[in-house]
Design a protein that fits this description.
about 250 residues; alpha+beta; 11 helices
Length: about 250
Amino acid sequence: MPPPDADLYPTASGPAKVIVDAHSAEQSLKLYSGWFCPFVQRVWIVLEEKKIPYQYIEVNPYHKPESLLSLNPRGLVPTLAYENKPLYESTVICEFLEDAYPDYGVKLLPAEPYLRARMRIWVDFVSTRVLPAFHRFLQFQPGQQGEKTIEDVRSGFLDTLRQFAEAMDEEGPFFLGKDPTLVDYVLAPWAVRLWIFDHFKEGGLGLPGEGKGQQDEKSWARFRKWLGAIEGRKSIVETTSDRQNYLPIYQR
């Protein structure tokens, strides 16, 4: 039997391939990447939003280059090489890029201290609540999570999205208002992968459609508005590959 990632498409495709090609030249700032990895996409989106010069380096998960291993012995992506010094952990890298390149592109963090702290609370919520629920739902197999059913894990995941939506600015379209900030970017890569539940899971994602959210319709309407803004954001579109190339990753 071939290894699980044997069918992994080797490079970015679609809009993301254009961006990769545009960032293949040597730069002092290097992003060691896997086109398929949502944690990489977090950092990649921020680099594109801030318009920071960088070199994109695709990493084959089975043949990691020595240049990466010398920076990060575990060979994990994303790894950022800044002045030949390594940084990893996607949210750490994103905040570093804001600190190191304050005059480039958009601002990731609100200037007002309370809003900045509140944003970090919801960044943490994404990491500790939304993403674990996403993966529980994605990996669910009957009988493997005690007596839980697929409806249990689906509703658990949707509840995290509802809570996220309820904390948003009323107008939006982004979490804190008309402009995106770090909290939008940390969830965006998973938001543009929500289609995988409709593809692989019986009953699909289950996100309520327009007018079907019952007592929570206001929250779901706000989430749909946010999701539309995220799916249409240029930096997100241009760091996303062709859908069919994600399928072998998520069908495992």
